[in-house]
């Protein structure tokens, strides 16, 4: 009696086919995980930028609330050299003028156009100091022409608006209404 012995297992073709399918699935999963990581980074950056934009608008709001009113730069000149930047908001305060200007940054570390604040520094308790005016970048990556606007409304509300845009196509718009007190 002869017994024919059949081998149990997979053929070489079946093993190669399983290997190709497994590699394809692994590659697809890896690509999905990398895309999710990239999306997570974009969302994280957008959240950080939104917080910074909100803080900037709150800084301008604080300056507006301490100001005696908006001023004409020709009558009350800014305390700092604007270096070709455009004045977008000029305030008269008891501590001296505060000027917000929009334009090209002085240093290459900033992204795109910047919003700069020229005026007295804040003290430890949130009051305007009496020292020399400081010229500081408060926000970068602003849109070309109207990255920051302070639009007065007929209802006595000043609408502060920021628009940022980044090299990768991302964009952020932020708005903060500020109720102006009579005489401000």
Describe this structure in words.
This protein has 184 residues and is of the alpha+beta class. Helices cover 30% and strands 29% of the residues. It contains one helix and eight strands, in the order αββββββββ. The chain has a five-stranded antiparallel β-sheet, covered by helices on one side. β6 (148-152) and β7 form a beta hairpin. It is rod-shaped.
The assigned structural class equals alpha+beta
- What is the spatial order of strands in the main beta sheet? 1-2-3-4-5
Shape: rod-shaped
**Strand residue content:** 25-35%
The total beta strand count reads 8
Radius of gyration: 29 Å
> For the report, how would you describe the main beta sheet?
5 strands, antiparallel
Q: Mean pLDDT, rounded to whole units?
A: 84
Low-pLDDT sequence parts: none
Give structural attributes:
1 helix; 3-stranded antiparallel β-sheet; alpha+beta; 5-stranded antiparallel β-sheet; 184 residues; 29% strand
């Amino acid at each position: 009696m002869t017994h024919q012995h059949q081998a149990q297992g997979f053929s070489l073709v079946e093993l190669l086919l399983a290997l190709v399918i497994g590699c394809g699935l692994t590659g697809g999963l890896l690509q999905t995980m990398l895309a999710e990581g990239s999306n997570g980074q974009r969302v994280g950056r957008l959240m950080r930028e939104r917080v910074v934009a909100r803080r900037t608008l709150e800084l301008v709001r604080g300056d507006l609330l301490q100001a005696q009113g908006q001023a004409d730069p020709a009558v009350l000149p800014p305390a700092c050299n604007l270096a070709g930047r455009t004045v977008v908001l000029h305030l008269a305060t008891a501590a001296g003028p505060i000027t917000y200007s929009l334009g090209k940054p002085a240093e290459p570390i900033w992204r795109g156009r910047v919003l700069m604040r020229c005026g007295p520094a804040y003290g430890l308790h949130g009051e305007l100091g009496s020292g020399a005016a400081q010229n500081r970048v408060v926000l970068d990556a602003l849109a070309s022409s109207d990255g920051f606007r302070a639009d007065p409304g007929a209802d006595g509300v000043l609408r502060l608006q920021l628009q940022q845009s980044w090299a990768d196509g991302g964009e952020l718009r932020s708005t903060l209404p500020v109720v102006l007190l009579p005489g401000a």
